[in-house]
Fold this protein.
Amino acid sequence: GEDVEQSLFLSVREGDSSVINCTYTDSSSTYLYWYKQEPGAGLQLLTYIFSNMDMKQDQRLTVLLNKKDKHLSLRIADTQTGDSAIYFCAETLNTGFQKLVFGTGTRLLVSP
Amino acid sequence: DAGVIQSPRHEVTEMGQEVTLRCKPISGHDYLFWYRQTMMRGLELLIYFNNNVPIDDSGMPEDRFSAKMPNASFSTLKIQPSEPRDSAVYFCASSVDRGSEKLFFGSGTQLSVL
């Protein structure tokens, strides 16, 4: 199937690290993505990782990819209240056009 | 560039009425997508266009839904007649080319059908 699964909710305290997890289905996905959605806004591309990589770091963000287990994670270091949002992982399905399939989204709440 | 522009931001209508949602993609982007977001079903791809031509509309729920892209800078999503179950946030997104899945989303239209 096309289900990309995420936990629905994560709550952390400001300054802590956040880890958002995702499992995907298509082992042939070329790229895997993390999008961020702030209240009342559209999704914004946060970061992405090419499928032949295990890890990608971008400032406070670290993406880990375990292709064997089809598991993707996003770690946010030193989480700030401004990081409160919904985070979506997405995979590409190779159906002729590389269709982007989004996960259910994880709502991250950062408390002071 | 101002990004992907959608209008209206909010739409409240009564069941049976026609609803038209509008989108202006980022200039130079060849692909345009319409998504629907609901709590129950998450983000669903409804239809996408390449160079103004509809490529895949398999996500369009019913014949009540139609989408057009008369030119490179404008697209509409129409629901006629609307039903309460159509209530959702509708997003338009665009991307540069087929090899890029890096979508740029508009702010969405919050549709409420009473």
User: Anything to note?
Assistant: The interface with chain B takes residues 31, 33, 40-45, 48, 88, 90, 92, 97-100, 102-105 of chain A (CB under 8 Å). Residues 17 and 77 of chain A are 5 Å apart (CA to CA).
